[in-house]
Write a structure and sequence with these properties.
0% strand
Length: 326
């Protein structure tokens, strides 16, 4: 935030964006790993979906409030906004520094501090270990990819839906208001997640396919139908992601939980690399309405493939002993 506020050219902006992405990748998976292993240590991992829902609800509330910050940004300028974001980041870092790593396995209890000179070798060994884990459990990796596609479709829907509203006659200055309402639906979805069934195939059918349908219908002409279906898509999408991420956690070894959850996030980024420009090209050539329809159709096809994959074979037995788990 500080570098972005002080930047006056493209190299500085690119540096700030790179550091921000690097920070997100370092933090990715940490919250889920600490939360789940803390519950394992307390003997109640089944409660993770409840805590995950609460965490996502708090995140969605603040994200919704942040969407209204455009009115403040206009007054304080982009430098003031980035400096304010930096100050919030410092406060969050101080709070996160009070957390301690839970001890969920015997291997973690025996763990000692690694000297700095051994970090490169340990990091390489850890990378290879997780790479081999995903190779051995390719169906698990495939399901991670399918979940990432649902998340990518939700993000694309929000981006192109805003432009669609403008094309349908909504003044650009008022886009923040329906976006705020859309993010409130994320809050409702996160609260709904804890009520959902505990089978991944079931939520792919009950939530994934409706998300695809609502994403496609969000491109309908008219502000009211577009807002209605976009809101339903956002609600179901957030409920799906919270529940799906909770269902995936038991399959991750404790010593690799943060890394594998981060790989899940990385798959989302990998999906966005080709999908974002392709969707942008479709929006330019065909219009945002048809673009949203294509996003929904593509998501539906991916979900059907995931369901067939789940039906063909369940998760293989995970050899957790090798990874130092219970």
């Amino acid at each position: 935030g500080i570098i972005m506020a002080l930047s006056t050219d493209w190299p500085g902006i690119c540096l700030a964006m790179g550091l921000e992405a690097f920070g997100f990748n370092l933090a990715s998976g940490t919250l889920e790993a600490i939360s789940y292993d803390s519950l394992v240590q307390a003997g109640d991992p089944a409660d993770f979906v409840k805590w995950n829902s609460r965490q996502y609800t708090v995140y969605s509330v603040f994200q919704a409030l942040a969407s209204l910050a455009s009115f403040i940004t206009v007054r304080i300028g982009f430098r003031g906004a980035y400096l304010a974001a930096a100050a919030i980041g410092v406060c969050a870092s101080l709070a996160a520094g009070q957390l301690t790593e839970p001890v969920a396995t015997q291997a973690q209890a025996r763990r000692t501090r690694i000297p700095l000179r051994q970090w490169p070798r340990k990091l390489w060994d850890h990378t290879l270990l997780n790479f081999h884990f995903l190779l051995e459990h390719r169906r698990l990796a495939a399901k991670m990819l399918c979940i990432s596609l649902v998340a990518a479709a939700g993000y694309l829907m929000q981006m192109f839906w805003q432009q669609h509203l403008v094309e349908e006659g909504l003044p650009a200055a008022w886009v923040g208001t329906p976006l705020f309402l859309l993010m409130l639906m994320d809050v409702a979805g996160a609260m709904l997640a804890r009520k959902l069934p505990g089978r991944l195939r079931t939520i792919f059918l009950w939530l994934g396919l409706p998300v695809a349908a609502c994403t496609a219908l969000a491109g309908l002409p008219g502000l009211l139908p577009s807002l209605l279906f976009a809101g339903c898509s956002s609600l179901l999408d957030s409920a799906f992601l919270v529940r799906a991420s909770s269902l995936m956690q038991p399959f991750y070894p404790s010593d690799s939980r943060a890394t594998l959850t981060s790989v899940d996030s990385m798959m989302y980024s990998m999906c966005m690399v080709p999908l974002s420009p392709l969707a942008g090209l479709a929006a330019d050539r065909l219009g945002t309405g048809l673009c949203l329809g294509l996003v929904g159709l593509g998501l539906a096809l991916a979900i059907l493939c995931a369901v067939l994959l789940q039906r063909k074979q369940a998760f293989p037995h995970l050899n957790k002993k090798r990874f130092g788990s219970e």
